[in-house]
Design a protein that fits this description.
6 helices; 22% strand
Length: 212
């Protein structure tokens, strides 16, 4: 079941009744995420045993700052919804520098209440096409990549890390792994971007924010 097969705003009642059950259930999933009525713990727990690749570009520039991409295989999740929760969970662990092995199962409900539920409640949660995803990502990512290369020889040089290990800038193009099929905007402001996306091979989360 895809999270993104949502009916367009403005359809009349007759048009909406022709929408299949999968679409209406997907719309319900988005509404349930906003309301905090979906049990997240089992999806969060599943994420802790899944390998996730993280690529981070640090420019050390106030305007372009950092961008990072997190991806896992399409085979890792049973649905777009589950993949979104799994990646959001891993993002929390990555940002907070928590060790997965130190997590107790009974703590996940608290993490969901304090972090994931507010994230989904306050996010845009706008379903978009692959072309819209690519435009949003490329709008900042290409500039971040260029800035990183331009500043590579500065005293406080830019850096590229994959799974926490510093690597050569020649690997900046490895993620996103392929063009997006569709996605979900979590935040799409002029100075901050968070977008969940789906490619033929992977689920991904792209994030960028400026310090300006």
């Amino acid at each position: 079941m895809s999270l993104f097969l949502l009916p367009k705003i403005g359809k009349n009642i007759r048009e909406r009744t022709s929408v299949d059950d999968e679409t209406r259930l997907s719309e319900l999933s988005v509404a349930s995420l906003r309301a905090g009525t979906i049990a997240l713990e089992s999806m969060m727990l599943k994420s802790l045993s899944q390998a996730v690749t993280t690529l981070q570009i640090s420019t050390r520039d106030e305007m372009w700052c950092d961008a990072y991409v997190m991806e896992m295989p399409r085979t890792a999740a049973d649905s777009d919804l589950e993949a979104l929760v799994m990646l959001a969970t891993r993002q929390l662990y990555w940002l907070e520098e928590w060790e997965i092995t130190e997590t107790r199962v009974e703590e996940l409900a608290g993490f969901a209440d304090l972090w994931l539920t507010p994230l989904f409640r306050e996010g845009e949660l706008v379903a978009v096409s692959g072309a819209e995803v690519q435009a949003l990502i490329n709008g900042s990512l290409e500039a971040v990549r260029k800035c990183a290369l331009d500043r590579a020889n500065y005293a406080r040089a830019s850096e590229l890390h994959i799974d926490g290990r510093r690597v050569d800038f020649g690997r900046m193009e490895e993620l996103p792994s392929s063009p997006a099929l569709h996605g979900l905007f979590l935040e799409s402001k002029w100075n901050s971007v968070d977008v969940f996306y789906v490619t033929p091979e992977a689920y991904g989360l792209y994030c960028w924010g400026t310090g300006a």
